[in-house]
Model the fold of this input.
Amino acid sequence: MNVNPIVLSIPIFFLLIGVELVVERFSHKNLYNFPDSIANLSCGITSQLSGLFMRVLAVGVYEIIAENFAMFTLERTWIYWLALFLLTDLAYYWAHRMSHEINLFWGGHVVHHQSEEYNLSVALRQSSFQVVWTFAFSLPLAVLGFGTTDFILMSALNTLYQFWIHTETINKMGWLEYVLNTPSHHRVHHGRNPKYIDKNHAGSLIIWDKMFGTFQQEEERPTYGITKPINSWNAVWANFDHYASMTRDMKRMRSWKDKVKYLFMKPGWLPDYLGGYQSAPEIVKEAYVKYRTPSAVGLNYYVLFQYVICLAGTSLFLFNQTKFALPEKAFIAVLISIVVVNCGVLFENKPWVKVSEWIRIVTYPGLLIILTFINGWSNSYILIAIAYFAISATWFYFLSRSHASAA
Done:
């Protein structure tokens, strides 16, 4: 399968996000925060970029086992597809559950829970490293004889199903709540309220949570996010923040036994001499304040302009990634990652991001011009590069001046 079904679904994702934005407008609910949404989409982009390299490992191992160690040769009847659906969903449940219950694995999943909002853009907020810790949970399906392509397709469909449940616009859904994972069930999963933490790990079917004792009904609407907010819009740092915190904790531990134990214990575990298990604090609604970074309207439009170009370029790259050699993929992934990092950190007004953005504004058009000469492309690319530089440089110059004046 050369094209990821999730990549093919990108236009549908944005169409549904647009619908939710319309609902927000007419219902007068505050469902979206612009910097948060940009960070969510950026994490989705970095996840897809890293997946070009990480998924090779996961798919490769599955293929080796399916080809050499499969116990059965299965006929692809309706029973085959039903069994594959159920087992894929079951494997997802356990992989997802362990991603919450093992500290090391949580570092590969926490990205998806960092947003303090709950809307369809959060569904796209995915980790770049989760597959490293979770792919092994699906390997029993290869042993049973389920084909690699069939598993990849079913796994992608399972992931696609979960997109629509990241919304507050749909309340409880009657009898479907008994069988399916619904927006109500998944809102619980994203809650940082103590009674909601580590509940409702389902992919498509909520039955697994009810069978294995991790189900929690939605009562009051959750407070979303993680117990130690990241307080950053940096999509790359989002993937490293938990591991940086783990490193700090491990430096305080007295023995290697405690350090190794810390990796595989539940998030929040510490040795007794460091205070013992740190349980999730109760939520005090009146005192709770979401992370916010007020920004000028001009900066919002500037980031939106850069981001639309980035999304278009990323989509073209992902659709055509098979045409590039591995070093070329890595280089393009770095270029795109710089854009999404800058777009997020510009809202934080960090001094270094202004320098980084100026370097990017000058370097990217220059790179396009050089590639045009080397490859003999149409001169229209040179005109595009010049136009992009002129618009971006002028716009960012006046943004920087207006901010300096305001300061």
About this structure: The chain has a mean pLDDT of 95.
